[in-house]
Structure formats: C-alpha cells, structure tokens
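Hey,
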Amino acid sequence: MYVKICGLRTAGTVDAAVEAGADAVGFVFAPGSPRLIGPEAARALAGRVPAAVETVGVFRRQPVDEVLATASAVGLTTVQLHGDEEDGDFERVRAAGFRTIRAMSSDRYLTHPAPDPVDRLLIDAPLPGGGSRFDTGRLGARPPRGFWLLAGGLDPANVASAIRSAGPAGVDVSSGVESSRGVKSADLIRSFVEAARNG
C-alpha cells in the first residue's frame, strides 16, 4: 500500500513520515491553504528526504510556469495538480521531468472521468483539505483504472476500512494526522502509516 503524507511543514514531521515508511511526502504551495509553505522552507525539508521517497508539490489553479519554477527550485520529484487543469498542463510537467498526480474531487471524477491513466490519479472529497469523507461506494459504478490514491477524511482509525472498501493502490492524508488545523502530529503520522499497511 502506497502511503503519502501531505501538508508537511516541519523537520520533525518530515522525519517522522520517512521513518514510519511513507512512500511520499507532500508540500502544499496552493495559496490560501492553512498548510501553505514557501519554496525556501520546502527546499530545506525536501533535502532531508531520501531519494527513495517521493517529494510532492501540491498546486491548485496556478500557472504552469509558476508550478515548474517552484518545483525546480525546491527540488521536487513529483507535481500534483489539484485544480482541474488541462491535459496539456500535465504534458508540460511530465516533459519537464517530473512525475505527476492528477487530483480530482469524487464529484468531478464521476461526471468527468480522467482519461486513460497517463498520470496517477488521486480521488478526493468534494471539498479537498477539509477532512471530510465521501461515499466510496459511489466509485463502484465507475472504478478508477490503473494506479490511484484515495484521499478525503482519512485518519488512523478509518484508513484500513476505507482501503478494504474502495481498493485503492494507495492513500493520501493531511488533516487526518493533525493535532490542530495545519499542525501535523508525528504520533498520528506513525499511526496512520501502520494502520494503512497493517490494517
């Protein structure tokens, strides 16, 4: 089970995610997010991450030139676009040498399914970042193809059952490992990774 811990902003929580065995750590560059981090701070944190762990930048409705400049400055391996960007935007990101994650709300996925999976897909709650769950049973009529991540309201207590219900290749968490809004807990990070892997 692939596990991504997103919205990290401190060395302690980055280290906790890596030590717990997370496959990816995420840094949020979307304006207005309570988890927003600047490129300089993110670069210092990304430098703590071993090469085997993906460093993901999360962007939302930002110009691709800005996305690529930030991703390059930070030294990211992966770009996650979370604003219904066009296929051409993903092509530009891949052409620049970055891996990609195409994030969509569950509502949008069900009405505008992603094309054949060139990009990894992340399916989130209708209001991303709010810690709310959605009915994963709705995906049964149109199950995602290829590698996809489940997000939205996951936490250490419910991630195992969500995996059994939806059958994703991986999971993504942010608010579910926070002690308060925007503040990550190393203990919750460790508990989440363990629950996702061992159920």
